[in-house]
Design a protein that fits this description.
The protein is an alpha+beta fold. It has a single domain, classed as Aminopeptidase (3-Layer(aba) Sandwich). 27% of the residues lie in helices and 32% in strands. Strands 1-2-3-4-5-6-8-7 form an 8-stranded mixed beta sheet. Strand 5, helix 4 and strand 6 form a beta-alpha-beta unit. The model has no long low-confidence stretch (mean pLDDT 97). Bound molecules: coenzyme A. Coenzyme A binds next to helix 2, strand 5, helix 4 and helix 5.
Amino acid sequence: MPDAVMSFGGFTLIPMTEADLPRVVEWRSRPEVHEWYGGRPVTAEEIRAKHLDNTDPVTRSIVHLDGEPIGFLQFYEYIDEWKPAIGLRPDEEAWGLDLYLGEPHLHGQGIGTRLVRGVAERLASEHGATRVTIDPHVGNTAAIRCYEKAGFRKVRLMPSYERVRGEWKDAWLMEWRPGE
Ligand SMILES: CC(C)(COP(=O)(O)OP(=O)(O)OC[C@H]1O[C@@H](n2cnc3c(N)ncnc32)[C@H](O)[C@@H]1OP(=O)(O)O)[C@@H](O)C(=O)NCCC(=O)NCCS
């Protein structure tokens, strides 16, 4: 197993490898997950192409809690070509996060709040992030509540942000800054 990219409070984030594919496919097959992440189940080939063979500067990790794999989290520093999608100017810096907890019975227990807060804090302390963003669909009430509890705030409504099952969905740009 590769070395952790982040560790705190019982959480360990370990870079995703080929060995994680079956687990990730299973997680993404769960309606409670793909309803808000990806919009549909995915195949191992799709995940391999998107997460393993992809050379984008994104850190893709499996989240372990007390040694057990519980979900997926990716983080990245916005490169210039990605900035317009969330309304950032070229001179504005930001780090982004995307995640899901793969086991629905773990939802709603405060795990996401601790995870997101801990990752944001470490992006600031270990990578120098001055702004961390996340972009939940406007209907994803649980995620929005989770991110607000973690210290993120809504900064911008982004209309028709992402196409899901043929329908354009609006999303909130939410932001966390160290010290706020
Ligand atoms: C979003 C996600 C990461 C949040 O993690 P989590 O551990 O479930 O979140 P938390 O338990 O810390 O916080 C969720 C909050 O939303 C509340 N909540 C849950 N379902 C809700 C609903 N339908 N309406 C309103 N609030 C809801 C919970 O009660 C909790 O708030 P509370 O502590 O004030 O009671 C996780 O639920 C998940 O992976 N969901 C599926 C995929 C997904 O949505 N990914 C995020 C894409 S942006």
